[in-house]
Amino acid sequence: IFRYIFYKCHHLLEAAPNQSGRIIVSSQLLHLHAKKLIVEEGSAAVLPCALSSKQDITNVLFDWKKGHQEVFMYDAGVHYNNGRPGQDGQFKGRVSHLEEELKHGNASIRINNTRVSDSGNYTCLFPRLNPPRTFSVQLIVNQISVHGWSVVLGILIGAVGTLLMIGAIGTCQRGTFKKK
To answer: What is the pTM of this model?
Structure first.
């Protein structure tokens, strides 16, 4: 595993490159550039955000945003799903964090029942770390086409028709079908 080491503002920063291998250091902010995630409308999407140090973040603040929209904020156990106010209505009841992963430095979130309107650029910010860290993810939610549903419906109708035909043939072969 390659590691990039930066010396910036009298701080030694260490980070593993993301999938694209791009890491940018800007003033005192370590920014790991965008990963792209493509999902179908109605499915769940897990947006990745993890510290390379794998330090326990159960008592840390991290904040997920889509532009200026508040998606999910976690601050030492207090978050939108347990009483914290301020979450954008578009995301209420659909976003959660991976509680068991916090002790491994993982602040990834899960968006359930994705909508096309969820598409966009998301940031995961750790503002109180020294230096602060930001991760970016581009989410693309593809609309399920009418054509796609018609294919599924056609397969289901074909399967039901086949089962009915097999049942009728079986009835005739057993002689239980009576002519009037």
So the answer is: 0.64
